[in-house]
Amino acid sequence: QAIQPQDTGFRIDTRQGPVYCERLVLTAGLSNRALGKMVGLQVPVAPNKGQILVTEKLAPLLDLPTVQVRQTAEGGVMIGDSHEETGLETDTSSAVMAAIARRAVQMFPVLQNARLVRAWAALRVMTPDGKPIYQQSEQYPGAYVATCHSGVTLAANHALRLPAWLLGTAPLPEIEPFTASRFDQ
Predict the structure, then answer these.
(1) What is the pLDDT of residues 18-74, one digit of tens each?
(2) Which of 103, 138, 147, 165 has a CA between 20 and 30 Å from the CA of residue 38?
């Protein structure tokens, strides 16, 4: 509902009542844009729709996942490489799905006769340059934002490096290029 900076921390007004904390980490995806403003952070994120196709279970065909195609441990092949600026709309599109399938068959002809068992669309949280934003509010120290599209890819960094920075026990100078100030130019 609302974030109110206090003398020692933050008050977060929720539907269940207020919550108080000394530190606040915004990890709310697309909502970080509005929430960041409440604590002096500019978080330029926008939705980017991607669509995924999933095949029936197949014998192993990929030694390593590619950017567009990966096979699950159960054998289904997940295919997707679309990037669409559609606002918050998450409907699938037959034309986009057909293009995804065509490209996948060009790369992996063995997929030509595979049956599709499901498809979906979802929204990615994207910054203007596609890179994450890690930043502490200058106006309200103790308020941070950590937002990115590649949560799985960056999980090791998030688990191993960010906690000490967020707790203030270790500086993390290598994240300086990932502050939102890079968009000020």
Answers:
(1) 999 999 999 999 999 999 999 999 999 999 999 999 999 999 998 887 878 999 999
(2) 165
Amino acid, res. 49: K
Measured distance CA(174)–CA(99) in Å, rounded: 39
Could you tell me if 140 and 77 lie in one domain? no
Give the CATH number of the domain where residue 83 resides: 3.30.9.10
Instruction: Give the whole-angstrom CA distance, residue 4 versus residue 40.
Output: 11
- Same domain for 75 and 102, yes or no, is yes
Helix, strand and coil content of the chain, in percent to the nearest 5, comes to 25, 30, 40
Residues 139 and 110 in one domain: no
pTM of the model: 0.83
